[in-house]
Amino acid sequence: MFEDPGVGVFQVWDYVVFAALFVISSGIGIFFAVKERKKVSSREFLVGGKQMTCGPVALSLTASFMSAVTVLGTPSDVYRFGASFIIFGIAYTIMVIMTAELFVPVFYRSGITSTYEYLELRFSRTVRMAATLIYVVQTILYTGVVVYAPALALNQVTGFNLWGSIAATGVVCTFYCTLGGLKAVVWTDAFQMVVMLMGFLTVLIQGTIKSGGTAVVWQKAQEGSRLEIFDFDLDPLRRHTFWTITVGGTFTWLGIYGVNQSTIQRCISCKSEKQAKLALYFNLLGLLVILVCAVFSGLIMYSFYMDCDPWTAGFVSAPDQLMPYFVMDILGHLPGLPGLFVACAFSGTLSTVAASINALATVTYEDFVKYCFNNLTDRCSTWISKGLCVVFGVACTTMAVAAAYMGGVVQAALSIHGMCGGPMLGLFSLGILLPCTNWMGAVGGLAVGITLSFWAGIGAFVHPALPGKTMPLPLNTSGCVPLNTSDILTTLAPSLAPERYPSTKPALADSWYSMSYLYYSAVGWLATMTAGLLISLVTGPQRGKDVKPLLIRPVCNLFCFWSEKCKTLCWCGVPHDEETVDFSKNFVSSDALAMKQGQPRDQVNGLSKDPREISSSSSPEDKAYINAGFTKDTYF
């Protein structure tokens, strides 16, 4: 045992700074509730009237997916395993390019509000309902853990009240989601993104000064093997190598990002497809900035604790508590700055929870409520959408409370996002990339993908991989002050201490169950694609004339550019000539086109429809009046 030198605790000014985050977030919700009070349609509430621009949407996307798990977990990962986490920048880049060029154009042009509405247009209502239910359960469970995990870490280090922080997070997110809808969520996320950057910069600057400067940090990181980034070992059982991060990480983030309702909902809220793509590319810059800040925070933290690791010494009980402990150690004497970092961590939590609540309300309204009640008024539909925000806010907060009693299951819940993401990515890939896939292949492929990815994930949780595959780097306590000399001989670093494993392990424990967690999504995607295609071929491929060409992305045009015959073969009978399919060139928004034609917006191209008159099972062309993807520009 070692003597804990002690760190600072929250002071009055820290609580003031932290409370300001919640007050400003709530104020943004009130602002948009007052500003948009005369716009009562559910479309305005759920997708911002499709009038958002790329700037706030880009910040919102970054904040939504850089949760407190990233703020607290990534520096800890770098501290224990090294800076190879920086390779995720490659995965982020590939993921954003594929999302912007493959998935968003299809979703934007099809005029959908719920991502899973695409599945009904492409396959059947059965496929849509199955995917929606998986998403709802997955998101509630994941969001609960996102709220609970950082609240617990901060509680045990800073003394910040656990249940108070959980309740405050749930209440504030539900409040501004319910009042202001998607616009409030997007602008609040943008504000919270700025807070996250300020918190990181504070830690980076003060931590570097306390550690002796940038040169000292870099030297100590090299001495501790934390800068050995590129490991090209092809072994899929290794936790983090160049290949597991670039390949597995790309699939993992595509499952979380590319076909996720929360992402797509923000993209289709943009006023044009070009704005949606720009939002994704600007968001990539935000992802890379946050990644670099988190990795350097981990390196600085290692440099500071190189000779006295708080986790090994027993000053903290879990690795996720290292970052808040470090913050209180270097900033505890400066009133307000610890509060700024806690606001940084909770900004990630607030943005993630708000995005989840809004996305859950959207898919539930679009996929269930509108199907059961076709003739709702605008006012009624808006109130139902707000009620759903309250319901899911309570559900997510309750899940966070329940997580306190789940013990080790919390670790399993954190990986559910990845295990569900791969099969869902495979399902949408079947619809967009393979025109021959029918609804039976889609359902069967999803079932096989979910089964295999959960089999691997749950097996890994029950039978964890050997330390030789996870490769934790050594930690040191030689600089800690012992309580007595006998304790020095009996203390082992947690990363090096022998772990207990069951005496009898299944045959797959050292192979299938030891696979890197980053490959869960890749396994789910590959299984879904393979099974879906085979089942479709066995039961009879989908006829090309029954598939709307705008639901298919002409990627085969890139790979088969030399042969028109190959294009025709890849499209399986779906019309694929440029005049029929390619609406990406020279289009303008419906508003601009209406102004040129001197017509009201809702009468563009001769269409005069109320959004409520279009059922969720309508074809994409029926929704063209609100979507630039179906509006050809005849003026340029």
TrEMBL record:
Region called Disordered, residue ranges: 599-623
InterPro entries: Na/Glc_symporter_sf, Na/solute_symporter, Sodium:Solute_Symporter_SSF
Main location: membrane
Localization: Cell membrane
Keywords assigned: Cell membrane, Glycoprotein, Ion transport, Membrane, Sodium, Sodium transport, Symport, Transmembrane, Transmembrane helix, Transport
GO MF terms held by the record: symporter activity
Entry keyword Lipid metabolism: no
Keyword Glycoprotein: yes
Membrane topology listed for this record: Multi-pass membrane protein
An individual GO BP term: sodium ion transport
GO cellular component, one term: plasma membrane
UniProt family annotation: Belongs to the sodium:solute symporter (SSF) (TC 2.A.21) family.
Protein name as catalogued: Solute carrier family 5 member 12
Organism: Lepisosteus oculatus (Spotted gar)
